[in-house]
Amino acid sequence: MTPSKIWMRLVDERLDDEYLEGVENFLDYAFSHAGRENEIRCPCIKCCNTYSHPRALVSSHLKVYGILRNYTFWYHHGEVAREPQTVSEGQGDEEMQEESADGYDPMQDLLHDLFPQNNNPTEQTTTPPSNEEEPNNEAAKFYKLLDNYNQPLYEGCSTTKLSALVNLLHVKNLGKWSNKSFTMLLEYLRKAFLPQNSTLPNSYYEKKTIQELGLSYRKIDACTNHCMLYWKEDINAESCKVCGASRWKEDKRTGTTMHSAKGKKIPQKTMRYFPLKPRLQRMFMCRKTAESFRWHAEGRVDDGVIRCPADSK
């Protein structure tokens, strides 16, 4: 259970006892989820969850600089979706109550941010009205995601397939699990705990829903000696133009080029590339991260005093 977050609204009154107590409760929670790590990401206005520090330094930063106002879902510090929140005495903040209320699912916000043109995903039908024209590509993606969102993990389950996938991948990321160990977990869950009609994927690689959220990557073949990438004008090259090494794996016994089960040549080395533009678009499409991205322009104090590198010429 996460501690109450009402103290975060007192960031301008950081000497207040409620704020100081809230900082300590946050640190207790964050380090209880840090495992053996002695450091956590610092959510202060200066570090913005970019740098990791020990407890004493994070505590000092939160008291001196203040915590990020919009960091209300502590995903960098172990919080998972639908985790209940402790309600402090006299807490009457409607926003906090709404987020901790039964039935709230952050997947609704995720779908809304991905498809802002479809105002209320949960109020729309999963298929377009029959008397209207066929949906365009973006709308078709939305309806498909909405179908996944409304599909329960198994019959009678209150958790949806999309919500389960996102939360499991979040745990994988926090725990720094390998793809193989994550696949083993999925197989065990399906075999030992879930009914046969479960919609949970069989392996980590069976994640088309997550790819549609814009979290996929491009594979680019690379030279085994890190000399070059096989792309643009070199996309069809068979060997490295720097060192001459073959692009493809060869059978050590026969010397022939190895092929996959689908008949494709197997490259010596592959780079997985996350395109920058889609990543930036996704960050700006999310209301919470977009506010942090605009902070230097909208939230930074411009009073002639140098507080961070952005204040210099």
TrEMBL record:
Region Disordered: start-end pairs: 113-136
Ranges of biased composition (kind: Low complexity): 116-130
Domain Transposase-associated: 6-79
InterPro entries: Transpos_assoc
Pfam families: Transpos_assoc
Superkingdom of origin: Eukaryota
UniProt-recorded name of the protein: Transposase-associated domain-containing protein
Organism for this UniProt entry: Triticum urartu
